[in-house]
Protein 1
Amino acid sequence: MDTSRRDFLKIGGLCALGLSSVEVAEAFAKSQASKYLTNPKAGAAKRWAMAIDVKKCWKAEKKECKDCILACDWAHNVPDIPVKRQEVKWLWNEKYENAFPDQESELEPVEVKEKPFLVLCNQCAHAPCVRVCPTQATFKNDQGITMMDMHRCIGCRYCMAACPYGARSFNWRDPRPYITKINPDYPTRDRGVVEKCDFCVERLAVGKIPACVEACKSKALIFGDLDDPNSDLRKALASRYSIRRKPELGTMPGVYYLM
Amino acid sequence: MKIYDGKYILIGLLVFGVLVTFPLWFDHGKAVAPADPSIKTPVIEAMMAKHCILPKDRMITEHMKLLNVWRTQVVRYGKTVYVAPGGEKYDMSLETECFRCHSNKAEFCDRCHNYAGLDKATDPYCFSCHVVPGEKNPGAGKVAMVHKESK
């Protein structure tokens, strides 16, 4: 059979169109079949951030208040591992000299020197951990939170080396035996992944505020949108002097300390 | 026709044939108990029309793919609500959605997984992190106390 070049190209074109239409139809059917939505109650923000009213915190601390830390540990199944170098920490207390090593003058008020500062992941705008992660297991979400994707973490610990705040912990062992009471609504972790505070992203997604903020009876933790000039957080930052941890590194931390 | 060293070759072929077909005839005729996953849980019993997120046959073959898509949507894109083809909305969470109905992992998940040969504790390893309803954990103390207070 003789086929002219013209006919061959015509038939070829028709075949290609036919084959591609199957793909298009399938993709269309898929997009119609199921949808993924955000919870209508979910909190919206361009950049979530936190301010810690240090004075209010210290007042409660006199009564050995640890409500925020305990609430966080319970909410996220954070294990209590007795070996110091294998500890898993999301929210914990640190001394001034360790939390603000470059700000030390040695002549601070005794109170500042001795009282604890609450520290957590700073949810940096320029997060070094995100830059170094080889698998994008840690990434910035669209609300400014530095997230952990546990399924993708390969446990290389580059992020821990990159984080200037020591906010990340590695699971050197199965954490389950070290969790006194498991919160059934939140997964635990497995051996070999890195974890840290994520501003309770799972609570924000259903319209709640972070567990530590909710637990603080003295209202020392102020949570809100850093990009919204009318938020409580911005108002607090506008009215009080605040410091951040190691701002000179250019990571743009999102946790402020109201002095 | 003459086969050189035919004796050894034929014996060798016979041994090879027996070994290769071993899995076929070894299990032949033996009855294997069906997986028989149970859906007898209080929540499912109380349902007027029993249905899962997708039709049953799709759930059997695709639940792992569905869970993986859910995971991506929740963790990477912050979407937490799944709209099924029928229009019902589901919270994309193993803990609070799947286990809400299927609160009997041992009689539901495990039976099929064991039947399919996935019976090692680590395979599938979903449950080394995701908490199974009613799972016991050793120890008691400070965190338990806080939970009581916050309730």
Protein 2
Amino acid sequence: MTIASGTVREAAIAAPPPASAATSPARPRKRRQLTRNRWGYAYVAPFFLVFAAFSLYPFMYTAWVSLHETSLSNINGGTWVGLENYRNLLQSEFFWNATRNTFTIGILATVPQLCMALGLAHLLNYKLRGRTFFRTVMLMPYATSIAAATLVFSQLFGRDYGLINTMLEAVGLQAIDWEAGTVSSQVAIAVIVTWRWTGYNALIYLAAMQSIPGELYEAAEIDGASKWKQFLHVTIPSLRPTILFTIVVSTIGAVQLFGEPLLFAGNGTTSGGASGQYQTLGLLMYQQGWSNFHIGQAATTAWAMFMIILVIVGVNAVIGRLRNRADR
Amino acid sequence: MATLAPPVPDAGRSPSPAAPATRRRHRGGSKAGKPGPVTYTLLTLVALVSIFPLYWTLVAGSHTNAEIAATPPPFLPNASLFDNFQAALEQAPIGKAILNSVLVAGSITVGTVLFCTLAGFAFAKLQFRGKGVLLGLVIGTMMVPTQLAVIPLFMMIAELQWVNQLQAVILPTLVSAFGVFFMRQYLISALPNELLEAGRVDGASTFRIFWSIVVPVARPAMAVLAMLTFLTAWNEFFWPLIALTTANPTVQVALAGLGSGYVPQRSVIMAGTLLGTLPVLIVFTILGKQIVGGIMQGAVKG
């Protein structure tokens, strides 16, 4: 995982060399270390108190709940059912439907988004007039909330008076019932995600591009590499850790996709369309818990989501490590 | 999705004052040549696509329902904006929602910046047993989906009778793993060990050292973290939707309620969306440049 590899690198830089500074007598030095010791905990305590109460404890508790038959109205009186919820989940048509949708929407939303962000970062890396303007404008979708963006886009994608259908008809194409179709609704939702995140990822890539040493490009130029070849053989390889990182982050986001499918029909239904054509895992979990009041089932779905994330992050980490090894 | 700071090759070693200089040097490299008209055309197109949905909110929110349904549709704002604002305010308590969101996002920002600076400093510069494990724990949780926490959190606030109260959405979000990591990465390189040693030799208490040495150095990163945290907190959707109702909503909860219930009136929904988004857009117009810089700096620092 890239997050971890970043840490390792930083840790290597930050690792304080206590031995080298040992010019002072051993005793006072030891005492100072001890003071530091105590104060370290004091500094991290406020963070970890809140963290333990509202993150760690809930994670563990969710695991416990997932082994019970529990409902919202009967929160503490659940009965132990062991792995029953997990067995039900794996046999549930809704779970597999939501998993499929989460994957297809995730791919539709992530792949074009990151490719466009890469291209956009390349353009932004030129000596531009109005550089700040372009960068700021491209970040505006990121500042727009999921709720606001989805409400606007669900109008733009509207069947009868939606602007997108009006434009399709104006050029002689047929209007699309975006919300009703499986592919069309998933594409539309992917468009919302792409709109919100492309500019943000472009800035991340841009920052990474600017830290590539100019000498690399000079060398490539001397070798007669075209601009495109330079992009392929200098820019992309240098950005690999960053690209891997954005893939991981986008994937984690995609697995949790919730607000967009919830509000896409405009009325906050948890079914994800008439036939669940765009119900994601996040939405399913919300439906199980807060529409059907099956808290145990919802907890099981939440754990399944976490497992999926772990697998994806793990695969990414392995790929990253293998590629790194291949480079050496 | 939280904003995480990705690692970047060969970066993050230089303290921040050096960053602009490095950037300028690279821009002078052969890579960053003069852009042609194609570049400007493409960028303008992307800029238009980025702005258009927001502009459309204004257009649709300032017409009557019948007017936006016309062919061709209108492309300029119209006079009905304030009527629609009024209708939206009647349908959903957006005024109250904005006030609530300011309170919630403001508290979360103050808490996050304070706690994450404290913890980030400890992880960057202090030695204590179990530090590695604790830091690993912090980083690991960045992968855990929100969904995994909401059920017990809901039980907790139900027991405390906090449903529909603002502390229910403030407290669980008061710290962020990203924030700790972000501050740690910044302080590792920006805060010289000699400065801390000097403070210690002068006999300053650890608390004094934090306020008069660490905080001044950390200020630029704290500002960036504050902006990003405020934005994220303002836009937080999942947990507030569960913990609050439309009787005492944040902006996002109010917006979610806007489209449901009544026969949806497109122009009113759009006017309400505009009202709820306007505060962030104003802040963004003023601080946009700093936020852009912060995200890019975060990218290099991480």
